[in-house]
Design goal:
Number of helices: 5
Order of helices and strands: EEHEEHHEEHEH
Distance between the termini: 34 Å
Structural class: alpha/beta
Number of strands: 7
Oligomer: single chain
Shape: rod-shaped
Helix content: 55-70%
Length: 284
C-alpha cells in the first residue's frame, strides 16, 4: 500500500523510556472493541521490545500517553472501500461459478457434437453403400427375393438412424442455444465486474494516501486502518515516533514514511530501525 504517515509535531530529543501509554478514546464506528485495541497496542509494543531486548513501553489502564482512535472521513472511506471490495469479490465469485458452468457445458457440447459428427459420417457412408447396391441391382434388372429382404431391412435401419440423427441434431442445436445464453450471462457478468472494479479504482484508488495516524507529543491519534495487521503496523510506527525516532530510508522498515514493503504478518525492526533506536535512546 502507499498510505502515508503524518509527520509528528515534535519529539523528545532524548529518549525517555519506558513510555507509559494508555488507551484513550475509541470511536465505536471503528468496529473495534477495547480488548482488541489493547491487544493491538501490546502487539505494537512487542515489535520494538522483542527486537531491542529493552523494556521500551508499559501499558497503564488509566494514565500515560493516550492512544486515541479518531473516526473521520479517512476511516469512513476505508470502510466504504472495504465494502466495495467485498461486493466485487461477491460478483467475482458468482462469475467464477458461472464460468465454470460454461466450461463444463462447453466440454459436454464438444463431446456430444463430435459424437454426432461421427454418427453422421457413419450414416452417410452406410447410405452411400445402400444406394450403390440399389443402383447396381436395378441396373441388372431387379433384386432377387433374398436381396430384396436385406435391402428392406437396411432401408428400415437407415430410416431409423436418420430419425435418430434428426433428434440428435435438434438436441445439439438446443445445447448450442443454451451454451450461447450461458455465454451471454458470463460476458454480462464480466462487464459488470469490470465496471465495478473501474468505479472502485476511481473512487478509492487514492484512499490509502491519507495519513493513517500521528504522534503529537502528548498523544497518538489513529485515524485509519484496513485490518488488524494494518493497524499493528500503524501503531508500531507511531510508537517509534513516541520514542523520538524519525523516519528511516528502508521501505521495509517500521519507521519508513509509507506503509509499503513492510511484513504486516510478522512485523519486526530492520537494522535501520534498530540503528535509529540505539542512537535516539542511547542504547549499547
Amino acid at each position: 500500500g502507499g498510505s502515508g504517515y503524518a509527520l509528528y509535531d515534535k519529539f523528545v530529543l532524548l529518549c525517555d523510556y519506558p513510555v507509559v501509554y494508555t488507551l484513550g478514546t475509541l470511536d465505536a464506528r471503528f468496529d473495534l472493541s477495547r480488548e482488541e485495541a489493547i491487544a493491538a497496542l501490546h502487539a505494537a509494543e512487542r515489535v520494538w521490545e522483542s527486537s531491542s531486548g529493552e523494556n521500551l513501553f508499559e501499558y497503564n489502564t488509566s494514565r500515560g500517553l493516550p492512544v486515541h482512535f479518531v473516526y473521520d472521513q479517512r476511516q469512513e472511506e476505508t470502510q466504504k472501500a472495504g465494502q466495495s471490495e467485498t461486493d466485487i469479490e461477491g460478483v467475482r465469485a458468482t462469475y467464477d461459478v458461472l464460468l465454470a458452468d460454461y466450461d463444463r457445458a462447453h466440454a459436454v457440447y464438444k463431446r456430444e457434437s463430435a459424437n454426432y459428427d461421427r454418427d453422421v459420417y457413419m450414416y452417410e457412408q452406410r447410405l452411400e453403400s445402400y444406394n450403390d447396391t440399389v443402383a447396381r441391382i436395378n441396373a441388372r434388372g431387379g433384386a432377387r427375393p433374398e436381396e430384396s429382404k436385406k435391402l428392406e431391412a437396411e432401408k428400415a435401419t437407415l430410416e431409423a438412424d436418420a430419425q435418430r440423427l434428426d433428434e440428435e441434431r435438434a438436441r445439439i442445436n438446443s445445447m448450442v442455444q443454451s451454451l450461447n445464453d450461458l455465454g451471454d450471462e458470463v460476458n454480462a457478468l464480466a462487464r459488470q465486474l469490470n465496471i465495478r472494479v473501474t468505479i472502485h479504482n476511481e473512487q478509492f484508488g487514492d484512499a490509502r494516501q491519507f495519513d493513517q495516524g500521528d504522534y503529537r507529543g502528548n498523544e497518538i491519534n489513529i485515524y485509519q486502518f484496513e485490518s488488524p495487521r494494518d493497524l499493528g503496523m500503524v501503531l508500531a510506527h507511531e510508537f517509534g515516533h513516541a520514542l523520538g525516532i524519525e523516519h528511516v530510508e528502508n521501505p521495509r522498515s517500521v519507521m519508513y514514511y509509507l506503509m509499503e514493503e513492510q511484513d504486516l504478518d510478522r512485523p519486526q525492526l530492520t537494522s535501520q530501525d534498530l540503528a535509529a533506536l540505539r542512537i535516539t535512546c542511547r542504547l549499547d
